[in-house]
Design a protein that fits this description.
Elements (H helix, E strand, L loop, with lengths): L1 E7 L3 E8 L4 E8 L6 H14 L5 E6 L2 E3 L4 E4 L10 E2 H9 L3 E5 H12 L8 E6 L3 E7 L2 E2 L30 H5 L1 H9 L8 H9 L3 H25 L3 E5 L6 H13 L9 E4 L6 H8 L3
Parallel strand pairs: 1-4, 4-8, 9-12, 12-13
Antiparallel strand pairs: 1-2, 2-3, 5-6, 6-7, 9-10, 10-11
Helix pairs in contact: 3-9, 5-7, 6-7, 7-8
Length: about 290
Amino acid sequence: MRIAGVDIGGTSIKLGIFNQEGTTLEFIEYDTNSEQGGRSIIQHIIEKIEQFGAVDAIGVSTAGQVDNKRGIIVQGSANIPDTSGLQVKAMLEDHFTIPVAVENDVNAAALGENHFGVGKNLENFLFLTYGTGIGGAIVTDSEIFYGKSGFAGEFGHMITHGSGRQCGCGLLGCYETYASTTALVREAKKINPAYLNGKIIFEKYHDGDEEIKTVVHHWVDEIVIGLSSLIHIFNPPTIVIGGGIMEQEIIVQMISKQVKKNVLGSFSDVDIMKATLGNKAGMLGALSLHL
């Protein structure tokens, strides 16, 4: 059996062909060219898959709110225009006449970690990614918990600051407005406009820059505020955190230490673990939809 796993991101698309054991047979990464719109993106995916020969099933991970039962992007991502309402499943199934499954990118990344990464031996965990915003997923019995409307896990839009800063979603005081990588960079640039990304910020941090240390420590406090609330709500055995910024081991260590100080004693037996699949988690999660 040959399965295509596809991850549609705002910058690039990752496409792999795998066997049913999850072994990579082919892999390609290419520019999304998101300005061309959703239908063009799907057409390019069709062309790329055909270059690798026949496949038996296709799994797709994509940004935005996804109706995974119908395989439709209900609400597209701002980074990929003209995808709201895109019938990904129908378009691919009509062309290939094989099973197609479609999943939200964060849910897919959580499934990828569950099948192939740090969550391989875990049945129940919360998954959060920190980047431009904050994405979340709830894994229970190795399956995604979707909630009534199908979109459970929007942890980035928990209100952690009543009447706080306005989020891009329109709400006030959302978690991601204070604890995302974007929030960290925003505060660091107040010190120096040249501090444009996490890499630069943590170079300065490790160089001993006291102002940056203060900014980073406050940012970690914001992360912990959200995680502490989630721990008190879900009482999870494990929380897996991902996103490029979490490659900094010092962050994971600080979060893990502080979380235990900010929850009730009966909730403190929780492991904070770093995601291990990096930017291939979504593609591997898409693959797992057919395993």
